[in-house]
Amino acid sequence: MAVIAISQQIGSRGIELGELVSRELGYRFQTGEQLIAETAKRFNVSAEQVELFDVRNPHFWERKTESSRYVAYYRAVFLQAAAQDRIVVAGRSTANFLPEGGYGVKVRTMAPVAERIKQVAKDENLAAAAADKRVRDFDTELRARTQSLFGQDIDDPAIYDLVINTARLSLGAHASTLAALATHIDSEGGPERTKLMRDAAIAAQVHAALMAHPKIRDAQMSVNCSAGCVRVSGPGLVPPWDDLVIGVAQAIEGVASVEVGAEEDPVTLTTS
After folding, report:
1. pLDDT by residue (tens digit) across 238-258?
2. Are 32 and 90 within 8 A, CB to CB?
3. Is residue 29 over pLDDT 60?
4. Which residues pair with 222 in a beta bridge?
5. Is 125 exposed, middle or buried (0-12, 13-18, 19+ CB in 10 A)?
6. Helices (H) and strands (E) in the chain — how many of each?
7. What domains, with CATH codes, occur in the chain?
């Protein structure tokens, strides 16, 4: 079963495309805004706080503290939804959170600047000059913060499975292409791909729970998971902190066992 995550240039109609694909496939559909709201509710923070990592380029001190926490929260909510299969998520930086080698499809929608300015003017009821400034400022801000938080150039086509110029062909044609790709992935899906996504979701849940705990949220730690067996690594995870970490991790659904190590091994998720 496939998961489609669409990252969009502003004005490139990625959310509209996602809605069309989900209807054609009969998949669930969520926007990045909906996931932001769900994240805020689940972790008892404001939507504005969660948007810190995705609305503007964070200051240096925010990158090292609040931003990484809200990234962990959002990742946990998104991957939990993705692990339930058959979903299209459009908007925000969602495609950055899909694990490599799974059954997720990372999509980037783009269009020429002039076309995007027209679309933003229409969508947001802006004058042409205001829409021009909105698009160019947003592009600059998004590129900077993605580089800051993820170490990636969001416009690098190599980090996506598919880049779609929505100004060419109709959205319906692009939706059919994406639907065909998802159907193909479904036909080739196996238990290993399902396991990979579920393990990524469990690791994300544990990571977010640790980041939310007031006594250990500022500790450097990494989390990975294999077949429900969770390993948490970090330089300060010695008694009694290791028992606290184990208690938090064991409360997460799907965790079969927990191992804590004070060393830093190669890992799946990191807090900084």
Report:
1. 788 889 999 999 999 999 999
2. yes
3. yes
4. 233, 270
5. exposed
6. 11, 9
7. 3-189 (3.40.50.300), 192-270 (3.30.70)
